[in-house]
Specification:
399 residues, mainly alpha, Growth Hormone, Chain: A, 16 helices, 77% helix, 0% strand
């Protein structure tokens, strides 16, 4: 069936942006207050790293069924259910008094994340032509990056002093998720956009099997796994690293947030450039090579120059993230885009689970950040190799 697209309704764009913002904000509240959690609950670096990566583990577990559900019942219902679960888990972290309870509510938040976030690429593909879905996803990605940056900037110097507890930080951080869950059910249409050929269809296990046996999607999954392995290590431990070389808690969070602020600009500019050039792969392997040198550069700059290094890391990581998110919905047919995104995220976010936990174990064992950045450089080099092998999905792929 041919596809015919109309202008994306502004409520759909607004809700997509709010969803991206609200779903990831609660996760990035953890790094700035890691030391507070460790002190109040008497936990180790390893357990705190697990607290940061546990929602991503649930995302990896739920992403494939979450995408499949969206392909069957539609984007509005699938994402709406996930948004409610996400908001509930995020808010309940604000009443946790011990580590097991905090971890339990964090896992609930992760289930909601796994049902809602993997369907943002499907929403972009549903409402925009294939060659422009990359730009729409770039806009959604910018909202994710802004929420993470605000978490790093505000959690420690503003929210924590106002609430005097990590529970208060988590409770206030859940308010955007609660708001978007309510707004999504009230204002999102079903289907969201009047796009011929991409409405929800009835899918069976045979269709799902066809999606998950597609070799190109597995290659993209490996690419995303390597990306997350490096980036979640950076996001999870940069504030602690900066404090280890002399930064106070507030400046450490501010400098770490530069990774995300720079990423916003990178995504908005470079996704459009990618669409104009009709190429995706150069932005994948090029950004990976940049991250190899940037990871090594951590040991060559002092605290005053770390701002510039965070700009480089953030710019490279963000464009690689945005383009990788777009690949599955550009490879798969529209009616299978939810399942395709679910597969890539399910495999890819295992890297986000492994990165902070492994790095936390290294820190507990060595009390040094040196080997973390050596590992990040090695993983980025491997990512560049895989990026050369993924299919070119831009509209000038044949050239």
């Amino acid at each position: 069936m041919s596809e015919r697209y109309y202008r994306m309704p502004w409520p759909v764009l607004a809700l997509g942006l709010l969803l991206g913002f609200a779903t990831w904000l609660p996760l990035l509240l953890v790094p700035p207050i890691e030391d507070v959690i460790e002190e109040e609950l008497n936990t180790s670096h390893t357990l705190t790293g697990l607290l940061f990566s546990a929602p991503v583990a649930m995302l990896a577990l739920v992403a494939i069924p979450g995408g499949f559900i969206a392909d069957r019942i539609g984007i509005k219902k699938a994402v709406g259910i996930g948004a409610v679960i996400l908001a509930a888990g995020s808010a309940l972290r604000g009443v946790a008094s011990d580590f097991p309870t905090l971890m339990g509510f964090t896992l609930v938040y992760g289930v909601g994340l796994g049902l809602s976030f993997p369907n943002l690429p499907k929403l972009a593909r549903h409402c925009t032509p294939r060659e422009k879905s990359n730009v729409t996803l770039g806009m959604f990605t910018s909202a994710i990056l802004i929420s993470g940056a605000l978490s790093l900037v505000l959690a420690r110097p503003v929210i924590y002093p106002a609430t005097h507890s990590f529970q208060g930080v988590f409770l206030l951080g859940s308010l955007p998720a609660i708001a978007v869950a309510i707004l999504w059910w009230i204002f999102m249409k079903d289907p969201p956009c009047e796009s011929s050929g991409v409405q929800a269809v009835t899918l069976g296990l045979a269709s799902l099997r066809k999606t998950i046996t597609k070799a190109d999607l597995w290659l993209v999954s490996v690419l995303f796994l390597l990306h997350n392995l490096a980036i979640y290590t950076i996001l999870g431990w940069t504030p602690a690293f900066l404090k280890s070389i002399g930064a106070e808690a507030t400046p450490a969070g501010l400098i770490a947030s530069v990774v995300l602020w720079a990423g916003v600009v990178s995504v908005l500019v470079l996704t459009r450039l990618s669409t104009t050039l009709g190429k995706r792969k150069p932005f994948l392997w090029g950004s990976s090579i940049v991250l190899v040198f940037a990871s090594y550069g951590v040991w060559l700059v002092d605290l005053s120059a770390s701002w510039a290094l965070m700009v480089v890391i953030g710019s490279a990581a963000a464009i690689r993230f945005a383009i990788t998110l777009a690949l599955p919905v550009e490879i798969a047919p529209p009616e299978h885009s939810g399942s395709a995104s679910g597969l890539v995220m399910s495999v890819g976010y295992l890297g986000a689970l492994a990165g902070p936990v492994i790095s936390g174990f290294i820190l507990d064992s060595t009390a040094s950040f040196q080997w973390l950045f050596v590992a990040i450089a090695a993983v980025s080099a491997a990512t560049a190799v895989v990026a050369f092998a993924v299919p070119e999905t831009g509209n000038r792929a044949e050239a």
